[in-house]
Design goal:
The chain has four helices and five strands, in the order βαββαββαα. It is an alpha+beta fold. The structure holds flavin mononucleotide.
Amino acid sequence: MYRIVYMSRPTREMNIEDAGDLLSRAEKNNERNGITGILIHDRRRYLQYLEGDEAKVEETFARISIDRRHQAVIRLKSGTISRRQFPGWAMASKLVADDESLTKVVTRLVEDCDPDVAEELLKFAKARDEATSTEAARPDRT
Ligand SMILES: Cc1cc2nc3c(=O)[nH]c(=O)nc-3n(C[C@H](O)[C@H](O)[C@H](O)COP(=O)(O)O)c2cc1C
């Protein structure tokens, strides 16, 4: 089993219809490709975890990377893991409110994961929570 974790920034705020359309397409493609995972986002960031056959995951990530709905796509982690972590989810998604802790959301999502995978996702969530609190302390630059 192979997985990729990446983060990116939305290029514009997605409305509910846009997000729904993105997700239903993602789910349909992922089902066909044997890919499962999670997509967590707020207004400033996406954190996505994709797992499956290596070629299929890399192919999907290559497609996602050039999607103009987001930018600054950074691969945080990729490589082999022992087993599928989210067998029930072609793409679980969770919208995180501005004042909500990503760490809290991720803690719930990784409950059934292997400890090493859970830890790495939590590490990224914590880093993002820290970055967000620093951003919030500064005047908005957008
Ligand atoms: C944040 C984000 C996450 C995405 N996740 C997936 C995904 O998990 N699987 C997928 O096939 N496409 C995903 N997409 C969409 C792809 O970038 C691309 O638009 C889509 O795969 C094209 O499929 P189509 O030819 O069926 O429209 C995502 C896009 C964004 C912006």
